[in-house]
């Protein structure tokens, strides 16, 4: 019987925090392919804060110029759905879409997941495109 340690054994021995750190590093270096001088814009649930912090750390280590995160949580989202006027769902501040559009156009963001989901899955994204954002 061999006593050699396999990569899966090594990974299994890591703590949750170490695995999360590895995930963040892979997301930045492989998933995003972030290059020195690029900006990164994230949207995340507050529940993902530990991962977002690690992604931010690895992005700066990879040379990111700036990392900006927009957070949301279930309670604030639910409040909007329960109490906001109906017409608020057709509204988004221009500054937000300008920033996102600039990131997409400059190649700093790769909306692969949105493209893979197809146009029928992302009404808001299509509406932004129609508005020239």
In short:
With 133 residues, the protein is mostly helical.
Write the SSE topology.
Layout: H1 7-12, H2 16-32, E1 39-45, H3 49-61, E2 66-72, H4 74-83, H5 94-105, H6 112-117, H7 123-130
Parallel strand pairs: 1-2
Largest sheet: 2 strands, parallel
Quaternary organisation of the protein chains: single chain
Report the β-strand fraction as a percent range: 5-15%
| Derived structural class | mainly alpha
Order of helices and strands: HHEHEHHHH
Record the strand order, biggest sheet: 1-2
- The overall pLDDT average reads 81
Segments where pLDDT lies below 50 for 5+ residues?
A: 108-115, 118-123, 125-133
| Count of separate DSSP helical elements | 7
Shape: flat
Cα radius of gyration in angstroms: 19 Å
Number of strands: 2
Helix share bin: 40-55%
Measure the end-to-end span. 62 Å
How would you characterize the overall build of this protein?
The protein is mostly helical and 133 residues long. Helix content is 54%, strand content 11%. It is built from seven helices and two strands. It has a two-stranded parallel sheet. Helix 3 links the parallel strand 1 and strand 2. Helix 2 packs across helix 3. The longest helix is centred in the N-terminal third of the chain and has 17 residues. It is flat. The chain starts with 6 loop residues before the first helix and ends with a helix. The C terminus is likely disordered.
């Amino acid at each position: 019987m061999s006593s050699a340690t396999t990569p899966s054994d090594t990974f299994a021995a890591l703590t949750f925090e170490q695995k999360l750190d590895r995930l963040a590093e892979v997301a930045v270096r492989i998933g995003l392919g972030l290059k020195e001088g690029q900006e990164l814009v994230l949207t995340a649930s507050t529940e993902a804060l530990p991962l977002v912090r690690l992604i931010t750390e690895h992005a700066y280590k990879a040379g990111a110029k700036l990392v900006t995160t927009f957070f949301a949580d279930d309670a604030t989202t639910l409040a909007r759905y329960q109490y906001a006027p109906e017409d608020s769902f057709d509204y988004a501040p221009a500054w937000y879409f300008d920033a996102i559009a600039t990131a997409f156009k400059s190649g700093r963001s790769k909306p692969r997941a949105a493209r893979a989901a197809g146009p029928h899955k992302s009404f808001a994204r299509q509406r932004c495109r129609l508005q020239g954002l």
